[in-house]
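Lab notes, practical 5.
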Amino acid sequence: MMDKKHVKGENRGEIVLFALSTCGWCKKTKRLLNELSIEYYYVDVDLLKGDEREKTLKEMESFNPRRTFPTLVIDDKGIVGFKEERIKEVLGA
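Output from the prediction step:
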């Protein structure tokens, strides 16, 4: 099980953000989810080591084969990159 951080908020389904701790677009995605008061989990993949990192990248790959960041998964729908309007649309915000 990867080390996902939990952010409390309104439950709008299962939301997982695959991010990098140093990525500006990842930070914007977190900020947007926080502004919308949405409950989500995130994992900073660059802070993971060895097997844990590989397993996490493999899980992410099923939503984004190019393994780019941020990758946001909302109820098994992958959104690659910071796409504010698309994120709001899928969340019904």
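Observations recorded by the TA: The chain has one domain: 5-91. The two ends are 30 Å apart (CA to CA).
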